TrEMBL record:
Record feature DNA-binding region, as residue ranges: 32-51
Annotated SUPFAM superfamilies: Homeodomain-like
Molecular functions (GO terms): DNA-binding transcription factor activity; transcription cis-regulatory region binding
Protein name: TetR family transcriptional regulator
Domain HTH tetR-type: 9-69
Length: 200
């Protein structure tokens, strides 16, 4: 990477880091572009070289936080070779993410119900940019539970399950609705197991 490119990446990262800190401290609505550039120690014009608006920063951060949670969960599952099958691994990954968010409700509030998955077209187009998602998709596609399903069908199923889990996680941990997260986990995991069971 050239020095110029390195400096660009550094400024972009500084803006994202500043925005993330402020969003967690104050909330997105109470954070302005000026607040972000002031915290990042860059001019306001610099912000617009990297992001169209505050919403674009929010999307980038949602992607970054989601990726980190998923990556941490996948690293954790690799430490448990005793898990009997793909479905057990998926339940473990979901449980790991839920527990991480239970421990850090500021991050859960930031994510709300939005766990950002790169689109299937992005994964296909960007073999180097999305190594984690490509690896996961390969694992999922090779599992007996997903046999006979197309890449798109698998992606849709996993995305739907992930979105459902995030919504339940948010409501249960922060609002206790429809019940506590401990009461909801068996329900969630039963739905996941059924959704991933091989079609007959």
């Amino acid at each position: 990477m050239s020095t110029v490119e390195g400096k660009k990446q550094e400024k972009r990262r500084a803006l994202l880091d500043a925005a993330y800190e402020l969003f967690l401290e104050r909330g997105t609505a109470k954070t302005s572009v000026e607040d972000i550039t002031s915290r990042a120690k860059v001019g306001k014009g610099t912000f617009y070289l990297y992001f169209q608006d505050k919403g674009a920063v929010m999307q980038a951060l949602l992607g970054r936080v989601s990726y980190q949670l998923l990556n941490d969960a996948c690293l954790a599952v690799e430490q448990h070779p005793e898990l009997p099958d793909f479905t057990a691994q998926v339940v473990f990954v979901i449980d790991h993410i839920i527990e991480a968010l239970r421990q850090d409700v500021l991050v859960l509030r930031f994510l709300e119900r939005n766990f950002v998955w790169p689109g299937l077209d992005q994964i296909e187009a960007s073999r180097e940019a999305e190594p984690l998602m490509r690896k996961l998709l390969a694992i999922v596609l090779s599992s007996p539970e997903m046999a006979g399903r197309s890449e798109r069908e698998v992606y849709q199923r996993i995305t739907a399950l992930g979105s459902m889990c995030m919504s339940v996680c948010y409501s249960s941990i922060l609002e206790g609705k429809p019940d506590s997260i401990d009461a909801m986990k068996p329900v969630l995991y039963d739905i996941i197991r059924r959704a991933l069971s091989p079609e007959k």
